[in-house]
Amino acid sequence: MRPNYVICNCKPKHKNKPKNIKANLQSAVKKYKVQLKIRLYPEKKYRLHLLFHFLLLGLLSNNHTHLYAAEPIKEFDAMNVSAPLLTADTKANADIDTAQTKHVPMSTSDGQTLEKSADTVELPTIQVKAKKFRVITPMPGVVIDNKQSTTNIQSASGKELAESKALNVTEFMNGEMQSVSTSDYAGNPFQQDLNYRGFTASPSIGTAQGISVYLDGVRVNEAFGEVVNWDLIPMNALASLDMIPGSNPMFGLNTLGGALALRTKTGFTDNHARGQILAGSWGRKQVQLSNGFNNGTLGLFSALSYFDEEGWRKNSPSNLWQIYNNATLKFRYGEINLSALNVGTHLTGNGLLPVETTAIDRSAVFTSPDESKNSLGHYNLNARFDLSDFASISVLTYRRKVDQSAIGADFFENYKALQNAWGGPDMNGDGIDDVGLLNGLFNRSQLNQNSKGSALQLSLDLEKHQFTLGATYDNNNIKFTQSQQLAEIDENHYLSLPTDPVFAEFGYSNETSLPGIIRNNLKGSSTTKSIFFSDTWSPIDTLHITYGARFNWTNVKNTLRSDRGKDLHNFVPRDFTKINDRCRRNSRDFTARWMCTEGDYDYYSFNPALGLAWEPIENLTVYGNISRGARTPSVIELGCAKDHTLDGVQNNSTNMQFGCSIPTALSADPYLKQVRSTSYEMGLRGSHAGFDWNLGTFRTELTDDILFVPLGRKNRGVFDNFGQTLRQGIEIGMKGEIGKSKLGLNYTFMRATYESPAQLINESNSSNTAPTTIQSYINIRPGDELAGMPRHIVQASWNYRFNDRFDTTLSMVTHSSSFVRGNENNDHVARAASHQIGSGADRDPLDYIGSGKVAGYTVLNLKANYKFDHGITLFAKVDNLLNKNYATAGDLGKNGFAASGSFVAEANNWKKTTFIGSGAPLAIWVGLNFDMDWKKLKKQEND
Predict the structure, then answer these.
(1) Rg of the chain over CA atoms, in angstroms?
(2) Which of 174, 254, 756, 778 has the fewest CB atoms within 10 Å, i.e. the most exposed one?
(3) How far apart are CA 756 and CA 703, in angstroms?
(4) Once rounded to an integer, what is the mean pLDDT over residues 125-153?
């Protein structure tokens, strides 16, 4: 039974601004029809807002109001109030110490004294340690209320992440967030590209990176290529996820399209013991455990995750473990956090598959193994100190160490040239085919990264301003080595090193055994120093103007000892003699094996931002924003940059002749410009009839975009500045409840295009100019679309709760078609070889297979939960419910295998084909969840 009155003697402990006091009251508890009777101390007017905020919180929390009761001296009568506005995030941010209940008789506005009765509830005495509204900021502090945001920030709580049963961040965002899609080039769920508004955060070297990812204020894009290793982020340790568009000054370090801010749990924010076990398709086994508790001063939180599966494709096992620990010390004027994240992963991603093979067996692999092993140690110490009710200082220091070893298997495209160089398939004439078996190639790499940094942030929460001023320092040191070896491919497409002693006898042991041909040794470092400020000015309660800027200074150094770029069949024993195993002295020194270079580059950028959010009427916000961003070239991009000083010079530039086989060879390191972006965004958002909705448009213009430019051979090319690219689109979303149903729908229309003409080299693109020119050029025109970016993205979900115990969720993800890599000019079509003869040679000898696109698709997924007593839940998860055959990524390349899988020894019978990354088939998993609320358990014991 709900009361007619709620009466409280209240004195808030901390202040907050008096924004929308009436709106907060009118938005609180419509369905309860409760009249408020509140007694106040004569505090300043801004105290009133905090009082109402926590009183309404109490009304939604079984009538336990989070306030401090004291002797009354003034009475305030409020009106009947309307619908709840309070969010779960606000509840989670309330920190309460419960004291003894104190009853104080009170009088109403007509002078009558109200004692306890059936229609009156006396509130318990509670001391409030007030926190501010839900904010998004790199470090603890007050920066911006979600409602005041001048962009379309999308957020998810830890509860939403857990309920999604998503394996990782990319899977969750692909199914839930506007303008997001994923591309699976590697063939592993932990190694997918995350695409947002035409920008990408990818674990693959060579992908143009445009999204920054922050974990508790630390940017976790790796310095080597700006890549993001999604396998190093534990899902069950995340308390929140926020996707922030554009180049927000607070998250502006190397940010072009947006920043993904992840916040982890503590013993104060997650006072639960949780567990989950899952098993099912492909031998997948997953165990997640976490526990958080606190005694009011010290909080501890730990999370463990273990994953193991065989994979749905052949030769594709993966496993990982993640351990996260956090200790939080709270005191009267702030808190200190110390966290440690340790991860070890062994992932197999056997990459793309020719379309003609997928038609026969989607689970096949082109070549294997393609493996990577990651080891992470990430340590973060941060603190917040409250200088006063309205000012705080946050500090942070971190250390991060990533070690990665990778092996990539492929077929050897110069198979015939190798036989000619080494004396035919039978090298020694003994009747045994030896060289003819060397149709494979191993690419190996070893990467060691050490990062450290610190940050300082001042936050002011004033009457009309929420101001932040900060400075950051980040330093990264890198060691990278690469090697290649020739290999044999068996009938299962599995590669192994040859064991025939004939290669050692003829002086070819370097090419056929470990450590193989060393391609390069790279040492590099990058150091960035930044200062930033941001202010949200609210001249009136319904108008919020946000402005800020960030200044970055970055220094990138390279020390590179790089192989000249010879293909493996061109090495001869004298290349490894002491007289030739040295650095090149000058451009005429053709006998030295190594090019030894050093690079030292400085980059500066000033990145301002300005935005506005206006509430012309209740439950409607109009917003707009413009921001500038910049990204400096990474160590590897400078290590494999196109040398424009050698444009048109024949036989003089290893860059032009050989490029880099990513990630297996580097070359000299000429200068690259930093990328500059300008982002525009405007839109509407609001709520109506229980639904939240948004409608917006975005546009980001890039100049000097750094792209990996193919040079006509598999995975080989250079990094180069491209003139201009453009991402623009419209996004629409809505979510809410109707009866027992929760509904959500997102739609994005987007175009990501080249806006400058360019000429690339790709002999596997059927529109290449080889029939009439010496080189296989493809010509990009302004308006041609970037690879891997669908124009249309739709996400929909329907959750139906049958009763308090049982619910199901049906979700849908739809992507329209997109162009594959290698088809940057969008002109590739399937066709037969033309056999055009020029200079006595067949310039177009191979057929072209596939459309150069991945088709659009719709995938349905299903989840179901049944709750037992004592916090135990049985759940089932079904992915690709209709077993849809679809693909999310693709590339153009040569195929040395028949559709049946057998190797084709005659290179003239190979095909130039479209390779695709097939989506996983129907899969079913079942599991159990366990959730024990320590606070609830303690309360039950006390009762």
Answers:
(1) 31
(2) 756
(3) 10
(4) 59
> Alpha helix locations (H) across 553-712?
635-639, 654-657
The whole-number pLDDT of residue 136 equals 57
Report yes or no: 48 and 36 within 8 Å, Cβ to Cβ.
no
For residue 473, how many C-alpha atoms fall within 13 Å in the half-sphere facing its CB? 9
Determine the Cα–Cα distance for residues 307 and 292; give it in Å rounded to an integer: 22
pLDDT the model gives residue 144? 52
Residue 127 half-sphere exposure, CB side, CA atoms within 13 Å?
6
Residues 63-89 pLDDT 10s: 333 333 333 333 333 333 332 323 333
Closest C-alpha among 634, 815, 616 to residue 175: 815
Q: Is 483 helix (H, G, I), strand (E, B) or coil?
A: strand
pLDDT of residue 11: 39
Whether residue 830 is predicted with pLDDT greater than 90 in this model: the reply is: yes
Q: Show Cβ contacts of residue 436 under 8 Å, excluding neighbours closer than 6 positions.
A: 419, 424, 425, 426, 905
3-state SS of 378-446 is EEEEEEEEECCCCEEEEEEEEEEEEEEEEEEEEECCCHHHHHHHHCCCCCCCCCCCCHHHCCEEEEEEE
d(CA 185, CA 202): 10
Q: What is the pLDDT of residues 538-595, one digit of tens each?
A: 999 899 999 999 999 999 888 888 887 778 888 888 888 888 888 888 878 888 888 8
- Rounded Cα distance between 493 and 364, Å, is 9
Q: Is the pLDDT of residue 521 over 90?
A: no
Q: Rounded to an integer, what distance in angstroms lies between the CA atom of residue 472 and that of residue 489? A: 50
pLDDT at 838: 81
Q: What own/partner pairs with CB < 8 Å and gap ≥ 24 does 130-136 have?
A: 130/12, 130/13, 130/14, 130/16, 130/50, 130/54, 130/94, 131/93, 131/94, 131/95, 132/16, 132/93, 132/461, 133/90, 133/93, 134/87, 134/89, 134/90, 134/93, 136/242, 136/244, 136/261
The shares of helix, strand and coil residues in the chain, as percent rounded to the nearest 5, are: 10, 50, 40
Q: Is the peptide bond before 608 cis (omega within 30 degrees of 0)?
A: no
Mean pLDDT value across the chain: 82
- How far apart CA 209 and CA 420 sit, in angstroms, is 41
What's the farthest any 2 CA atoms get from each other in the chain? 115
SS3 state of residue 311: coil
Q: In this predicted model, what pLDDT tens digit does every residue of 777-816 receive, in sequence order?
A: 899 999 999 999 999 999 999 999 999 999 999 999 999 9
Q: In what order do the strands lie in the sheet with 74-77?
A: 74-77, 35-40, 5-10, 120-122
Which range has highest mean pLDDT (2-16, 281-295, 517-531)? 281-295
pLDDT of residue 937: 82
Whole-angstrom distance, CA of residue 857 vs CA of residue 582: 54
Of the candidates 744, 753, 854, 728, the residue with the CA atom closest to the CA atom of residue 810: 744
Residue 296 CB coordination number (10 Å): 10
Alpha-carbon span 72 to 483, nearest angstrom: 78
Kindly report each contact of residues 305-312 with a partner whose C-beta sits within 8 Å and lies 24 or more positions away, as own/partner: 305/234, 305/235, 305/236, 307/167, 308/283, 308/284, 309/282, 309/283, 309/284, 309/285, 310/282, 310/283, 311/188, 311/282, 311/348, 312/281, 312/282, 312/363, 312/920, 312/921, 312/923
Which pLDDT value is given to residue 473?
Answer: 96
Beta-bridged to residue 273, according to DSSP, are 291, 932
Q: For residue 914, with 0-12 CB atoms within 10 Å meaning exposed, 13-18 middle and 19 or more buried, which class applies?
A: buried
Identify which of 888, 891, 890, 875 has the alpha carbon closest to the alpha carbon of residue 920: 888
- Rounded to whole angstroms, how far apart are CA atoms 50 and 935? 24
User: Could you give the CA distance from residue 520 to residue 512 in angstroms, rounded to a whole number?
Assistant: 18
What is the reported pTM? Answer: 0.84
Tokens standing for residue 59? 């009304």
43: closest CA among 33, 34, 35, 52?
52
Q: One-letter amino acid identity for 928? A: L
Judged by average pLDDT, the poorest of 151-160, 587-596, 778-787, 894-903 is 587-596
How many other C-beta atoms are found inside a 10 Å radius of the C-beta of residue 126? 20
